[in-house]
Amino acid sequence: MDILSVIRGWALRDKLPIREISRRTGLSRNTIRRYLRAGIVEPKFKAPSRPSKLDPYAEKLSGWLLSEQRKSRKERRTAKQMHADLVQLGFDGSYERVSAFVRAWKSDRQRAQNTTDRGTFVPLVFKPGEAFQFDWSEDYAIIGGERTKLQVAHIKLSHSRAFLVRAYLLQTHEMLFDAHWHAFRVFEGVPGRGIYDNMRTAVDRVGVGKKRDVNARFMAMTSHYVFEPGFCNPAAGWEKGQVEKNVRDARSRMWQVMPTFSDLDALNRWLEERCKALWAETTHGALPGSIADVWEAEKSSLMPLPTAFDGYVEQRKRVSPTCLITFDRNCYSVPASFANQPVSLHIYPERLVIVAEGHVVCEHQRIIERSHRQPGRVIYDWHHYLAVVQRKPGALRNGAPFIEMPEAFRQLQDKLLRKPGGDREMVEILSLVLHHDEQVVLCAVNMALQAGVPTKTHVLNLLHRLVDGTPTDQPDVTPPSRLVLTKEPEANVARYDGLRTSGGKRHAS
Q: Is the pLDDT score of 50 beyond 90?
């Protein structure tokens, strides 16, 4: 810089010839002419290319980056994961060298495709307890030995950035309500505002500007938890950028490293514990300390947690003559007294509750089948058909609901149906569960089977002893020899005629 300034001063201000400037500086006249002709004020030098530890792996890393570009965003590896994979291949360089290579590779690819990211955004800041952000994503996990597609709810506090991830099989109203309850339970309070996109489970119709026709059940949920819902502009995901980033980060921090699970409940328990562990491991960034530290300070600004919202979706159903209702291609049994009548079906994430005449009639575990190639299932409760077989005992022999009876009842049925009238006798034994504890009846049936006396009379005798607390294991009594009859009595009903007459007079019978 100093010699260049001197050259320009001598040539432009003092009007010295180039030969004299060359003599004074020792530079060639061609170099001085090039500086003056180009108008260079600040000299620039090309950085020499130096060998890097990454050079032997550059081709491999470029291939990885190219293959990752062909994948969906959900399945792409991060630069940190690629660095770990290179270390496994023998690379002993730093992560910074790999991330610099990735940035340069992506920049070159953008220039080659003549594309650039022109988005410009304003940083947002939230007060403690002010808001949370919500979003859905689709991810996969191994559940019960099968790769299962999941609808994942992401809820994130905007101030402390504490987050919860919870997985479901469907993205419906009852799943949405359940996700909010678990999030507020984990956060130990409710923020004042929720930020959403225009999902169908919350918005029935998007109007002009910020006008929205909000779903009635969704509004009932927000009123119960006392927070104000806010909705982003269409296709403006950056308005809830924190939870959008959480969706992306969760794929590398959770979904790509998680183990296999036996069921969905085990997966959600693992996700909850993993989220809390990440709170402690992740620095907040904008505030000192970790996410867990800032969340501890924010808890006092959250509204205390109310009772859980009864987040069911109601549908009106009519019970078929075979005592079944249909939901999601599956059939569920209802007590026979409600056959051919309308009932109300309350749909929860994990169960179905049938309500009639203002009372809960029965309840079933919900079955969710993702594959439409498989036929629908029929879920029976054999108790619901007892009123039918009491009038039609012959239906017990091949009745589909009674295939699922406990094993003791089925063994007794096999023995009773071999003799005349056994079907009605079996129905009367099964009907005992309407008045007594089913486990006590099962115990009496098991004792009758073990004793080799599978009859209704013996089962009733044992049941009454169990109910009354009378011992059922009385020892066998051996009478003494002097009490043994020497002459068996004869049955003579004619003796009773003598009781009807006395002294020649006939008494009224």
A: no
pLDDT tens digit sequence for 137-158: 999 999 988 899 999 999 999 9
Element (H, E) at 486: none
Q: Please list, in sequence order, all residues whose beta carbon lies within 8 angstroms of the beta carbon of residue 137, skipping any fewer than 6 positions away.
A: 74, 151, 152, 154, 247, 250
Q: CB under 8 Å to 207, separation ≥6 — which residues?
A: 213
- Amino acid letter, residue 14: D
Query: Rounded CA gap, 129 and 370, in Å?
Result: 38
Average predicted confidence (pLDDT) for the chain: 86
pLDDT at 117 over 60: no
Mean pLDDT of 230-245: 82
Integer Cα distance of 98 and 78 in angstroms? 11
298 phi and psi angles, rounded to 5 deg: -80, -20
Residue 48, amino acid: P
Tell me the per-residue pLDDT of 482-505, one tens digit each, with 9 for 90 and over: 777 777 777 777 777 777 766 666
- Give the model's confidence band at 118: pLDDT under 50 very low, under 70 low, under 90 confident, else very high: low
The 3-state secondary structure of 58-84 reads HHHHHHHHHHHHCCCHHHCCCHHHHHH
For residues 509 and 503, give the distance between their C-alpha atoms in angstroms, rounded to a whole number.
16
DSSP structure string for 202-250: TEEEE-STT-EEE-HHHHHHHHHHT-EEEEPPTT-GGGGHHHHHHHHHH
CB neighbour class for 64 (10 Å; exposed up to 12, middle 13-18, buried from 19):
middle
- Sequential DSSP letters for 333-392: E--GGGTTSEEEEEE-SSEEEEEETTEEEEEEE------TTSPPPEE--GGGGHHHHHH-
